[in-house]
Amino acid sequence: MTTMHSHVQQFVNRYTIPELRALLEDAKNEIVAADAFEENDFGWWQEHALLLKKAIALRQQQSAYYPGLPTNPKAARHIDPEILKERCDIVAIVERHLPLKREGSHFKACCPFHSEKTASFVIFPDQNTWHCFGACNQGGDVIDFVMRIDGLSFGEAVRRLCSEVGLTWELRPNRPPRITADL
User: Bigger pLDDT: 106 or 20?
Assistant: First the structure.
């Protein structure tokens, strides 16, 4: 029962009611085809259709109880802040501020946070991080870089990066901020 409920919930979270109805029609067509050709997956399609019917009923029930519920569950999904870091191309963001030189699998430049003649600022694209091996000995991820280079707070830096990669930084009263995405 728990497995069935989790499958139904996955359908509800992933699809709108029209999409669920279209999937149900596809499942019904597959049932007819499997029955006509006496295929082994007949039972699987019947179970699939049953899950879709339950998902449609649950989605309709949720819409009735919560009129403000978005009709498209994909419109705003909670995203782990690590997703923001993964979506940001640190090389492209740093390159807006510094001329970079590729050296093997990483990039180098003179550090923007102190004066120097020899490049000690290194970007590691595979880890999406940076580090200065010079006088400041600082490092971090793409958010840290934007905070330092533009003099922004964490929230301002995240908000700016989110807008660049198509995510939304949602401030909620008396609760931690949440990053959402239009998927």
Answer: 106
